[in-house]
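A quick aside before the break. I want you to see a complete sequence-to-structure record at least once, exactly as it would be stored in a machine-readable document. Don't worry about memorizing anything.
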Amino acid sequence: MSNEDDIVFGGLYWEKAFIFKDLKTQTLNYLKTIDLNDIDCKDKRVIVSTVFGRNGKLKNTKIVKSGGPVCDSIAFYYVDGFKDWLPGLMRSRFVDISYIFPFYFDNEFKSRLTNMADYFTASANEYSLRETYFNFINSDSSHKIINDFTFFNNYLADQLSNDSTYVYNWEYDRPANKNCIKIVLNNDIKDSISFIIYYPDKPSVLYYIPAKERGIIYWDNWEIKPNFSPAKKNGILYLEKDIRTTLIGFIEGKEEPKLAIYKDIIFSRNTVINLDLKVYKKKSIDAFFEKSNIK
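That is the input. The structure line, written in tokens, reads:
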């Protein structure tokens, strides 16, 4: 893996920016303490920069452009006092994001700050989902596997990536008939199981198949065509033939998800499998991928 201390993203290059639980309330409470009529900041400009750290803490907050001691103090302590926020994500990994906040002390100062706060405030659901993922990433090895198939994909993509290869998530489209075999699932809950497929010999993509059946749109001969045969339907998976395959079945439960993991299996013919679903802790998954040949 690359040195995480060197990973700093900003500007337009993050996939998901930092988010606040409720920046508007923080802003309104802060503005109550400021009376612009009592300070000499009329039409002054201040620029404050900070870094929203991947560990959930601000760092390097500083004045980039000064408007005078009092104006600087108002702007600085507003930014440096941010709380209840979560860092941004880049390629499934929480990263440092540097950001610049401009302040212009005119008649619209308070309304402008309040409108900005609305922009950075996430919905309750979005904040809760990212908070769960943040807690999982920063948990110890005894933590249970995150009970969210999409976030689990992101976690595996990061685990399988290295300095020269990034593994992307991609919804799986059924391979051409001549290059695929059928895997028949012999489980009563077969239609409730989502799947992750990884081919170590061409490791740039981590394919995933949600439990919900759907038609897949795929790219073929420079045209977009509908494929009305889903990659998973009626308990059947379609996998590539004669290639090393890591197959992970994932079923979400009320408390802990259950997984079935098959590593480096080569399927040469149609096969029936009875998925052995188990509860895994984070340390089990970490140990499993530590031995992956992409590391």
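Two observations worth writing down. The first strand starts at residue 8 and ends at 10. The chain is about 25% helix and 35% strand. We'll return to this after the break.
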